[in-house]
Amino acid sequence: MTWNVEEFVNAAAVTVDELAAYVDESQRGVPRVVGRRPPGELAERLGLARWIREGGMTVDDHAGFLRTYLAEGTRLHHPAYLGHQVAAPDFPAALADLVHGVSNNPMAIYEMGASAATVEFEVLRWMLGKVGFGESGGGVLTHGGSLANLTALLAARASVAPEAWTEGVPGDLALLAPASSHYSLTRAAAILGLGERAVMPLDVDGLGRIDVARLPEALERVRRAGRRPMALVANACATGTGLHDDLRGIGGFCAANGVWFHVDGAHGASALLSEKHRHLLDGIDLADSLIWDAHKMLRTSSLAAAVLTRREGDLDAAFRQRASYLFYGEQGFDLIGRTVECSKAELGLKVFLNLAWRGERGLGEYVARRYATAHRFWELARERPGFECPYEPESNIVCFRYGTGDQADIRERLMEDGAFHLTSAEVGGVRHLRITVMAPATDDKTLEALLDRIAGAEEATAGSR
């Protein structure tokens, strides 16, 4: 069935109107920030079974469905959204999603999306320049940081054990990483065939940062265990705390000892765009590989994550695949040889349009303001009795405690009525509340209200015991 273009135009107009109202009321903090209605109840409200069974949706039906759909879930543009590290997407990136949804050019093969591939080339060239890899580096965009970490570690494995692709993974490889690393690193080790036991922990300080002075001991432990280091992973920044490892010190150690240095910069690499905060990434140019998520601090919608390598050939060596119906195209232009994905979305367009509208400076200011808001929360919390902050924040992530009660219970009470969305994490083995400042609408009024509600929620929890 061919498109009814007029119907599409009308449906798109309705969609834009509903989404515009959704973002507007979200930014103004009018509705609750999160809804968690049970799936069965929500499915009934949305009429899912009927629509699946009967079809026949009209433009007017679509408007009503979308209104109900958007009323549930999480409003990332809301000032009280302080939860996970997911962007409140800017509208240029949203436009890119619309373009891809219509054109659907899976551009890992150049002939399937020349414009999309060319845009990605230039976005990657920009990213490589920002991290200091320049013309000698290589890159590709993937659907998410977990896949990006896996891809980077495939490049590391190819460098250390090039026979692994055809002969299987040697049993003596090890991955060195702090316990504060993202779970996707351990998952990648298992997927790669190393197994979880091959992930060997690095010594850290009380806040989970790699102790550079004890890296020689860690390397010696690996060797005594009869293993070879495949890669050493550092955080920029750690998912739980938002704190950064000493990239310069770690990079120098890895270079001196011939160890592949991988940086998980999924969240923190965007600080390179902020003059005030780029020092946190000092030494990132020493990495052999790194990842950088655009769907976190570059304000694109999910998902768009970069895998960058200091030497282009290292990324090309990650996959060694043959398929006569695919691998015959434009030499140097097809990206399929660098990714797990074949039908890869037009991810570069989302990053490009945000840059085209806001510029490097605008995105850098966004990062700096979110970091400043998080620091302001830390200042306000320290002034209030009962609040405890284990560290001064370096990014837009802050961990803290209130009182001596169960912090998870406090969080659940805040989430129950949808007034605030925040998370929790362990710091030094102790459960803390955790905020991540992502929405531009979050201000001092929001922060003060959150502190008030936390104190009230803990008192309510204590009273119910």
TrEMBL record:
Pfam families assigned to the protein according to its UniProt record, in alphabetical order: Pyridoxal_deC (PF00282)
Cofactor: pyridoxal 5'-phosphate
Keyword Mitochondrion applies: no
UniProt keyword terms in alphabetical order: Decarboxylase, Lyase, Pyridoxal phosphate
Alphabetized PANTHER family for the sequence: CYSTEINE SULFINIC ACID DECARBOXYLASE, GLUTAMATE DECARBOXYLASE-RELATED
Family: Belongs to the group II decarboxylase family.
Protein name: Pyridoxal phosphate-dependent decarboxylase family protein
Organism: Streptosporangium vulgare
